[in-house]
Amino acid sequence: MKLMEYQGKDLFRRVGIPTPNGVFATTADDVKAFIREHPGSWVLKSQVMMGGRGKAGGIKFADDAQQGETLARELIGKVLKSVQNPDGEEVKSLLVEEKVDIASEAYVSIAIDRTAKQPVVLVTAQGGMDVEEVAEHDPDAIKKYWIDPARGYSPFIGRRLAFDAKLPEGFRKAFPAVLGALYTLFMDYGANLVEINPLVLTKDGRVIASDAKVDLDDNGLYKHPDVAAWNSESPADEDQAAAVAIGLGMSNYAKLDGTIGVIANGAGLGMGTMDAIRNAGGEAANFLDIGGGAQADLVKKSYDLVTSDPKVKAMFINIFGGITRGDQVARGIVEALKGGDVREVPLVVRLTGTNAEEGRRILDEAGFVPVETMDEGAARAVALAAGSK
Ligand code: GDP
Ligand code: MN
Q1: Residue 263 region, left (φ>0) first, then alpha (ψ -120 to 50), else beta?
Q2: 131 CA to centre of ligand 1 in angstroms
Q3: What is the pTM of this model?
Q4: Is the same domain home to 363 and 288?
Q5: Is there a single domain that holds both residue 39 and residue 142?
Q6: Using CA atoms, how far apart are residues 351 and 284, in angstroms rounded to an integer?
Q7: Which of 36, 117, 332, 361 is the most buried (most CB within 10 A)?
Q8: 8 Å CB contact between 130 and 137
Q9: Same structural domain, 246 and 366
């Protein structure tokens, strides 16, 4: 789960990384009112997922409320484009922050080095620009340190990196604590990446995280439900929004081009089901991972979501039971889909696991098509889709 800058900075503040004072705003009127109450120089920063906002025209400076309002009107609704993101991304909100006088810009990040199986810290005194650019033109300017998670972080790591990367003197005192806090954030929130670019040294001697890039591992989100809930605030597209709206994870549903609706429990089984459908000569209309348990309520909502796509001509529900009892799952499906206000399409269900036979009997009685194997289910679904209008 990638976070926007304002969300990343929220996490920064939780662990004690200094950030500029500011406020999150979604309308030009809010920006105007805020600056009127807090006279001074402010930066308006477009909140989008893409990087390189500076170059794309997404960062503006305002010295009074009127100018703030005008610039906010220009930014909100604007589609920012970059080389990485040629389609662009619409600006829906802004972060209004105190404009600081910059003496120097550094770069610091922590990511997982999968080869070393350890977090690796990257530091360079050439902050503000893309680190890839620095890596290309002046690779020696980037200093790395692999942190042994068993030993954890010690301030000497920060002192050594600041020295080796030749960070200006003004950074040296604050840097070990900033890096320590960044490491705490990285570990506690299960991040794939945390990046501060630029970490700014101000002319009045403060060290502040001027930007925040945070990418969290979805598998660790359960540890921080409040952060997981941010998902629903920043769905990147309609499918993600639809998934979140019915209580699924943001990446658990994606619409595709075929005619056969798919509901499976587990991402791997979902993809396997799509392959089986293709092998049987059909195409999946979607990917949907319903997660563990397959509760009746969620089955109904998932079914409604998938069949809301008019392309869907048949549905294949593929539930790998394990310790989930097949008869319970079957009853749940029947209860959810029989006689209610559902769009009726031919429904093939594969159930495995405890009491699967009993489950198939229940489905059969209800008029659904129970099958034993994935390939059999895919073949039935493809045939039914071809036969139905
Ligand atoms: P990005 O382009 O999406 O990475 O957005 P950043 O937050 O990194 O901002 C881009 C650039 O805008 C920074 O590298 C700074 O040069 C400039 N900038 C951002 N905030 C301030 C500020 O408070 N004062 C000054 N002088 N420049 C700023
Ligand atoms: Mn940046």
Answers
A1: beta
A2: 15
A3: 0.69
A4: yes
A5: no
A6: 19
A7: 332
A8: no
A9: yes
